[in-house]
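Record type: monomer structure entry
Structure origin: computed from sequence
Chain ID: A
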Amino acid sequence: MSETTQKKFASHPTSDKIYYIISGFVLAFVLVAVAYPLIYVLSASFSSGSAVSSGQVLLWPVDFSLEGYQAVFRNSDILLAYGNTLLYTVLGTAINVSVVMTCAYALSRKGLRGRNLFMFLFVFTMFFSGGLIPFYILMKDLSLLNTMWAMVLPGALSVYNMIIARTFIQSTIPDELLEAANMDGCSDARFFFSFVLPLSKAVIAVIALFSAVGHWNAYFNALMFLNDRSLYPIQIILREILIMNQVDVTMLIDPELQMANAQAAAVLKYALIVVATVPILCVYPFIQKYFVKGVMIGSLKG
């Protein structure tokens, strides 16, 4: 603790000091509770199968080995599913952001007729739905079963994200800017692309992050609507390995390692978890500055 920080801390009342100390311990406990499982999975993925199976891994890798990652990247099903997940995430996020922003801009315009009715209909869908069976029948009637579109089109419009974007546009972009643009002959479409989108980077980053995480972790739609294994996302393969225990280890490791099937399967699970988690963890730092600003949208008035 620096000297300046110590002086500031000493100037606080005793009740504040107690609060800060307790808060520090609580936050430290939460940090350990959240970080340790991640560190354990990462360490186990770089350990040998025998060390993982015998419970020797606690914090650091034991008998450093890349066996799990070699197994992951040698399996064609895993690589194909990984590529499918990347495609679904990029395409689905682009669709989500496009639909949400255009809808939010339209509903932010005070001159839109029936705006309150449209908002009521949107909000209504947040509380009531047709149910799982009608949803499946709808997807079947639209010929979306067993296609990639079954993973990206359902939920293209998130009402929650749309409300956030609408609030941001209303509170950030003044009506006077639109009036000035209209006086210069600017159309609504040009105003949207030239003014609204550039000024909405914070909320776009938040929506993109929420959408990307949702698409990356999505497995339920794939479980219901996909029968072709070549269309499976990585989460379905991970589910098979972790829950259903459907690991064909003979396809994943060298012949001399086939005697250690159980150990290899254990390492494979942790390696696949790391591979399936790292991309999203790598994206967050780049949009953190927008995320912190975007999540505060609508929290303050005036």
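Annotation 1: Residues 298-302 have pLDDT under 50 and may be disordered.
Annotation 2: The two ends are 37 Å apart (CA to CA).
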